[in-house]
Amino acid sequence: MLKFSCRPTLAVASLVLVATGCGSAARERRPLPAPVPPAAQTAQAAPAPDPVQELIDQSQTHYQLGQRELEVGHLDGARVEFDRAIDVLLTAPGGARTEPRLREQFDRLVDRISALEVATLAEGDGFSEKPSEPASIDALFDLAPAVEASPTPALTATVKIDLAQTSHDIPIPLNARVLSYVELFQGRLRNFIQDGLDRGSDYLPMIQSVFRAEGLPLDLAYVPLIESAFKTNALSRASARGVWQFMRPTARENGLKHDWYVDERSDPHKATRAAAKYLKTLGRMFDGDWHLALASYNGGPGRVQRAMKRYGRDDFWSLSSNPRWLPRETREYVPMILAAVIIARNPAQYGFTVPGSAATTTAEQVTVSGPVDLRRVAEWTATPVDVIQQLNPELRRWTTPVRAQAYELKVPQGSAETLRARLADADAAERGALNWHTVRPGESIATIARKLRVNRGDLAEANYLSVRSRVRPGQKLIIPRAPAVLMASQPDRPSPAAEARPEVERATLVTKAPGAESSSRSRQVYRVRHGDTLSSIARLFETSVSAIKQWNRLRSSRISPGQRLTVYSASHQ
Predict the structure, then answer these.
(1) Mean of the pLDDT values across residues 317-346?
(2) Which of 226, 264, 470, 501 is least surrounded by Cβ atoms within 10 Å, i.e. has the fewest?
């Protein structure tokens, strides 16, 4: 629709009248048409609704909702939205392939959804270990001053007054080594200490409660500020893990469990009880000298005791005065801890923000048996999967232990009954999609791992075996790799895409199949269901296995539930 300007100047209007030779003298003047109100102009200019674009927009909305569901780990919700994105296009008169724009959207969605499902399964297959963060203790040792700095007189005076006014249950000497770390924490490492104090507000009340019950000095509750900055997933270069940075042998010695599915070092509650037990042992070993006990927490009690005996020293400060008697890390560790205690007990005095009350998610426990995928739990409790993982930090993978008869899973307050009801109605496949292998005669852990292309150690640990364990024919082993059925519908239920297949068949575009004979075949997209093989799909669509492999560029005959295949079926006119 052309638009004209309605505001010519008087001079321009006169010129227009003369130039057009309207014959005003000979012809009767006609009245100008009444101006059209702006609202009426808008109404006239509004384009007619485009039903095809509306369907595409609806389809895209469902696709974006599916993406959001994937981001929070809700696989079922993502699958439903992805299927709706496709089903919307099938509602078009004549189907999704009779109109070029719909056909383009349909093909684009199929490709995008398939790629997203594959990527999601690869990233969160239930068996990939959760990522760790570097432990703060390593960074602190890297930043520790090579030469002992001289603290300023102002800082020395401040700490002296603070120690006189604040009651500590661990002796804190006012020496240059401790003061230099107070100064370092106030300066270059201010943000590090502040972040640790903020994070620690979630755990300190619990830690102090445990230590108070065990009769331990409450100053020891701040050890994790240096060890891990209170990060449950902290992992050091020496493979110490968790808030308290336990090595595996020490963790096991103090009652913490570790296997392929669970690492209780990452559970702050269990690890704190283990730390209390270990610190009590060290305190008794060194007759209540907590400086020596802390040095042993870092370097090991045997090393400290040998140094004491060899060099005839019975206190930490004289023992650490010679660089050859204790490792550098142990010599720096104790003054670091004491400086952290000084600041943490009175943060405002040193320019830090006092952490507020922690707004943590309260949890309740549900007893589960066997493997349950955490993404299922997240979906059934309407909770992001990250929250479920945060509530259960000891779980190394995205699944509860395979052989656990009674595992206590934590979920947000108020969702336990919902989860119990869903678990009661769910079969094993719905709880967690797992891959199993039945051992054949002559097979071993090594040959099975090689055949199935999985890590031999992972295969053994996932089944509570060692790499040298013997397996017997008929024994079922869990295979630690992506369970592809999670994004598919359950085996006993047809998928929405499968249910919509008659609609697809009525709406398919008749085209010549690549490499096919001259007769036309209709192009369709088939979603693989549990139990499907290329042979069964070929029979269904009256074609051959080799043709399906060619159309989909498959290098093998292996397919997975949820996978989408392009198939050119025979047309029956």
Answers:
(1) 94
(2) 470
For the stretch 256-291, pLDDT in tens is 998 889 999 999 999 999 999 999 999 999 999 999
Catalytic residue among 69, 117, 183, 227: 227
Closest alpha carbon to 84 in 100, 107, 65? 65
C-alpha–C-alpha distance, residues 242 and 263, integer Å: 9
* Residue 62 near residue 470, CB atoms below 8 Å: no
| 58: nearest Cα among 77, 98, 85 | 85
Phi first, then psi, for residue 235 (nearest 5°) are: -135, 125
Q: How far apart are CA 127 and CA 261, in angstroms?
A: 9
Q: How far apart are CA 156 and CA 355, in angstroms?
A: 25
* pLDDT at residue number 128: 62
Architecture field, domain 133-350: Orthogonal Bundle (1.10)
* pLDDT per residue as tens digits for the range 372-406: 988 889 889 988 888 999 999 999 988 899 887 89
Give the DSSP per-residue string, 176-197. HHHHHHHHHHHTTTHHHHHHHH
* Mean pLDDT, residues 295-312 taken together: 92
Backbone angles phi, psi at 526, to 5 degrees: -110, 135
What residues have CB less than 8 Å from 281, skipping those under 6 apart? none
Domain spans, the chain: 51-123, 133-350, 363-431, 435-482, 496-570
- Kindly report the pTM of this predicted structure: 0.64
Active site residue 227: yes
| CATH, domain 435-482, list 3.10.350.10, 3.30.200.20, 3.40.50.1110, 3.30.70.260 | 3.10.350.10
